[in-house]
Design goal:
The chain is an all-alpha fold. It has two domains: 108 residues, Orthogonal Bundle (Rna Polymerase Sigma Factor, Chain: A); 88 residues, Orthogonal Bundle (Arc Repressor Mutant, subunit A), CATH 1.10.10.10. The protein is built from eight helices and no strands. It is globular and about 55 Å long.
Length: 196
C-alpha cells in the first residue's frame, strides 16, 4: 500500500523553519507529519531523476514510495555525514536499480528532462530538448545519471559517489567520458550548433 497518493499535489519547497536534517530527526522519532513534509519537498526532484530510468508513472510512484519507506525505517541511522538530499537520492537510486533488476527491465535512454529553462522561445526550447536528448540517449545509463546528478541536481562529485555507491574517481571518469562523448556527438546531432 502506498505511503502517499497522487491526490495531494506535492509541494516543491521545505518550510523555512524545517531543514531536511531536522525533518529526518523528527521522522526518526516517528513523526508522520515530518515524513509527509519531506515527501512533498523531495517528490518533484525524485520524479525528474527517476523518469530518466523509466517512463512508467506507476513504477516511479512505487520507487518513490519504496524510497520513503526506507527513509521512515532508517531515518535514525542518518548521521549527517552528507546532505539529507544526497542521502535520500542515494536511497532512491538504489531502489530504482533494485526495481529494474528484479523486473528485468532496461532503463530508458531517451526520456526528456521535465524542465530546462534557457530560452524564452518555445521553438528554441523544443529544439534544445531534442538536441540534448539525442546526445544523452547515446550515453551509458551510468554516464547519464552522473551528468543528471551533477548538472540537473547540483550534487558534488563526492555526493554522486555516495548516491551511486561508487568511488569518486569512478564518478570523475564517467563525467569525463560523458563530456568527451557529448562534445563529439552534439555538433553532429544539431547540424552546425555547438555544444552548450
Amino acid at each position: 500500500m502506498p505511503l502517499f497518493t497522487r491526490s495531494t499535489p506535492p509541494q516543491s519547497t521545505i518550510p523555512p523553519d524545517d531543514s531536511e536534517e531536522a525533518l529526518l530527526a523528527r521522522i526518526a522519532g516517528a513523526d508522520r507529519g515530518a515524513l509527509a513534509t519531506l515527501y512533498q519537498a523531495r517528490h518533484r526532484r525524485l520524479v525528474r531523476f527517476l523518469s530518466r530510468h523509466t517512463r512508467r508513472q506507476h513504477v516511479i510512484d512505487e520507487v518513490i514510495n519504496d524510497t520513503f519507506l526506507v527513509v521512515w525505517q532508517k531515518a535514525g541511522e542518518f548521521r549527517g555525514q552528507s546532505r539529507a538530499s544526497t542521502w535520500i537520492m542515494g536511497i532512491a537510486y538504489r531502489c530504482m536499480l533494485k526495481h529494474l533488476r528484479d523486473h528485468k527491465e532496461m532503463p530508458c535512454a531517451d526520456q526528456a528532462p521535465e524542465e530546462i529553462v534557457l530560452s524564452d522561445s518555445p521553438a528554441d526550447l523544443v529544439e534544445l530538448h531534442d538536441w540534448l536528448d539525442k546526445g544523452l540517449a547515446r550515453l551509458s545509463p551510468e554516464q547519464r545519471d552522473t551528468l543528471e546528478l551533477a548538472y540537473g541536481f547540483g550534487h558534488s562529485l563526492e555526493e554522486i559517489a555516495e548516491i551511486t555507491g561508487t568511488a569518486v574517481n569512478t564518478v570523475k571518469s564517467r563525467m569525463f567520458q560523458a563530456r568527451i562523448k557529448l562534445a563529439n556527438l552534439l555538433p553532429n546531432l544539431g547540424g552546425e550548433r555547438k555544444t552548450p
